[in-house]
Amino acid sequence: MDRLVVDLDGAQGYAAGDDAHRLFFDDRAEALVEDARARLQLPQKLFELGELDVLYEPADAVLWTFMRPAGRPSFTPPMLGDFEDWQKLILEGFGEGRAPLRYLVLGSRAPGVYCFGGDLELFHRLIQAGDRAGLVRYGYRCVEILHRNIHALDLPILTIGLVQGAALGGGFEALLSFDHVIAERSATFGLPEVMFGLFPGMGAHAILSRKLGSAAADRIILSNKTYSAAEMHDLGIVHQLADDGEGVVATREFFARNGRRHAGMVGAKRAMRESTHVPLAELKRIVDHWAEAALQLREQDLKVMQRLAGAQAKLVAR
Q: So what CATH class is 46-317?
């Protein structure tokens, strides 16, 4: 009886019989070899990040990523470092002549929370120390990651934000950089910075004003309102609603529904970026304004910031 032997290095399959050896490929063997080759091409470090769980599925050419914060689900410096490495390693592993990638998905493992956004405890320390450079450095890192995601890392892919829980502050801002946002119905969205006399400094003004117009953007930024997924869907910020617990299923359905028109959707998103261009220099100028405003916060504002950070920590600890 013939047996299939697969040589992954040479991408060859052989059938060994009693009388002869011959080159042998069937559709299944070719698919197995291609899947194995794709996996071997990817940098192992991509799957060993401290606060990001990463899974590659060759069948749909999708890279699933879920934030897995060590503490409060916020963009702490360690998590920002993981995102910087994540983007760099994606560019090393995917693209022309490398493993195929069609979809990049970002969700969260934190129960009931997508992301609370900025590291309020870090902000409090930097403000008390009068460290403008530290605030700016943090903000620049955030908007550089955001800007690369807005441009889908210059790869022919669709980026998808999968929201299962609360997306607040910088967590909401991060979602604005995705091509397609899928939210479970119980998900919530908001920009709470006005509570402690500040404003969102990592992309909300630049992106929301382009998506909704300056008046609507200003209303959302200054309202301190928590919005439902349905309200965000009505505004066009959320593109697709899913029943609670069905976010991953809805994402897979999106792949199946849009597989044949993937190239057209990628092209349309690129055209949209051209017409609503967000320069990195603009994002950084807003960070500068944000840092200057942060240093003007009063002691009572800082106390509100601390209380909010404490409330977020308690919510996650439940």
A: alpha beta
According to DSSP, the β-strands at 21-23 and 180-184 are: unpaired
Find out whether 278 and 173 touch, Cβ atoms under 8 Å: no
Q: How do the domains of the chain map onto residue ranges?
A: 1-41, 46-317
Q: Give the pair of three-digit tokens for residue 262.
A: 């993937």
In this structure, the number of other CB atoms found within 10 A of the CB of residue 244 comes to 11
Cβ–Cβ under 8 Å, residues 130 and 295 = yes
SS3 track for 116-153: CCECHHHHHHHHHCCCHHHHHHHHHHHHHHHHHHHCHH
Per-residue pLDDT of the chain (318 residues; tens, 9 = 90+): 333 333 333 333 333 344 433 333 455 555 554 555 555 679 999 999 999 999 999 999 999 999 999 989 999 999 999 999 999 999 999 998 899 999 999 999 999 999 999 999 999 999 999 999 999 999 999 999 999 999 999 999 999 999 999 999 999 999 999 999 999 999 999 999 999 999 999 999 999 999 999 999 999 999 999 999 999 999 999 999 999 999 999 999 999 999 999 999 999 999 999 999 999 999 999 999 999 999 999 999 999 999 988 888 777 666
